[in-house]
Write a structure and sequence with these properties.
The chain has 419 residues and is of the alpha/beta class. It has helices at 6-10, 37-46, 76-92, 125-137, 165-179, 211-219, 222-233, 239-248, 258-264, 271-280, 293-303, 331-345, 362-367, 378-383, 396-399, 404-414, and strands at 23-32, 52-60, 63-70, 96-103, 114-120, 141-149, 154-161, 182-187, 197-200, 284-292, 307-316, 319-325, 352-356, 370-374, 386-388. Its cofactor is Mg(2+).
């Protein structure tokens, strides 16, 4: 046949074997770590003209495990010489070596890839066994494990393949609750690192307090207000209705008490670290609150926030009237403000993170690309993408793949104290 023969044109050109079909050598060395091991191994391999396909290395408590997946030398005799040379080099370095020949060792990782972040305080071996056992039972494979933090909680990230993300999330959520650890399961891909707007609830999330209860303490009706607040956060009462009922109890209170309330507000541990780190990474950060602008405006200035929305207590002649003015920020309102902030920030909703603890945060958590229930009520934990039940707000950074070491390194450069 000649080059213009139709039959010839219909035949596909022969394809060389793909990477997954090539014969490979897996070279593994392990032992006490010290500078120069990686360079030494590859200098040894370099003498045989092999190509590097993959490298993985981990150092745990001063012990190194280094794996190199390489193409074999051109001839059996050269391969034999490589094996002898690698083992001799390892002995000289007081290391152990293993060389395994295989085919198909460079197959792509399976579909259904997810990042599983586990937070424990403490993280027990039994919990790890239970969670990883669930992954195995579902037909998943743990491709990599990486520690994100050793304090104030232990945080590890598992790269899992072979199970759809939603299925894996549902599977592990039940086990995590039984093991008393927090877990987050998010799909792998660029979108995980593209979340560029974080919006938080304020009361019992960004701060440790319920602001209306601080005002109520000065009005002498703290217990009554606290009971209504708790019912609203559990989802037992309509938020807007409960807000009006609680605010009405503040009627006649001197508005000058606002300065005292601002001074009483306590930031949640890790709040400054979370915001500072996000801002370093170019994130925009906002708050949306069922509380009051009398306090949130102060927080905006204190923390350098980009966006804020809250209710406003009406003041006439220096006294609170017992009413709020303007649009009420309730459950639906929080989701609307999230969308508005995202539009102003020019960030798609799927690239947003929302953090909250109460039933009035649910619409916002569900609308965001990642919804995080922070020390939340049961109804919120069950509905959110993930839940964090330790009292440190900066643990949210681990869900985004940011390690404690990276945070501390950035703080050290700036001379900042983590808090």
């Amino acid at each position: 046949m000649n080059a213009t023969d139709p039959a010839a044109e219909a035949l596909p050109a022969p394809q060389p074997p793909g990477p997954s079909d090539e014969r490979t050598l897996l070279v593994k060395v392990f032992g006490k770590d010290r500078p120069g091991i990686t360079a030494g191994l590859f200098a040894t391999l370099g003498g045989f003209g092999v190509e590097v396909i993959d490298i993985e290395q981990v150092v745990t408590r001063g012990r190194i495990t280094l794996c190199a997946l390489v193409t074999p030398p051109d001839s059996p005799s050269a391969e034999g010489a490589l094996r002898v040379t690698v083992h001799r080099w390892a002995e000289e370095q007081k290391l152990q070596a293993e060389i395994i020949s295989g085919i198909g060792d460079n197959r792509p990782r399976r579909e259904g890839r997810s990042h599983v972040t586990v937070l424990g305080h403490p993280l027990t071996a039994a919990a790890v066994a239970a969670l990883t056992g669930r992954v195995s039972e579902a037909g998943g494979n743990i491709d990599r494990v990486f520690r994100l933090a050793k304090y104030p909680v232990t945080a590890v990230e598992l790269a899992v393949s072979g199970v759809p993300t939603e299925e894996l999330r549902a599977l592990l959520a039940t086990e995590a609750a039984a093991q008393r650890v927090d877990i987050a399961v998010v799909g792998a891909g660029l979108h995980r690192r593209a979340k560029r707007l974080v919006v938080m609830d304020v009361d019992s999330t960004l701060i440790q307090d319920e602001v209306i209860e601080l005002f109520a303490a000065h009005a002498g009706c703290e217990e009554e207000v606290a009971a209504v607040t708790a019912a609203a956060m559990r989802g037992e009462l309509d938020f807007a209705e409960s807000l009006r009922a609680r605010v009405a109890l503040l009627a006649g209170l001197d508005a000058a008490v606002t300065e005292k309330v601002r001074a009483e507000v306590r930031l949640t541990p890790g709040a400054r670290t979370l915001i500072r780190t996000l801002q370093r990474l170019g994130y925009q950060v906002g708050i949306v609150s069922g509380g009051f602008t009398q306090v949130t405006d102060h927080l905006v200035g204190l923390l350098g926030l980009d966006f804020a929305a809250a209710n406003t207590l009406e003041v006439v002649d220096g006294k609170f009237t017992g009413r709020v003015t303007g649009e009420i920020v309730d459950r639906a309102g929080k989701a609307r403000w999230l969308a508005r902030f995202a539009e102003q920030a020019k960030v798609p909703l799927e690239q947003t993170v929302a953090i909250g603890d109460g039933a009035n945060d649910l619409d916002m958590l569900n609308a965001a690309g990642l919804g995080v229930a922070f020390n939340a009520k049961p109804v919120v934990r069950e509905a959110a993408d993930t839940a964090v039940n330790v009292p440190f707000l900066d643990t949210v950074l681990y869900l985004l793949g940011i390690s404690r070491e990276e945070v501390e390194a950035a703080d050290a450069v700036d001379g900042t104290t983590a808090h």
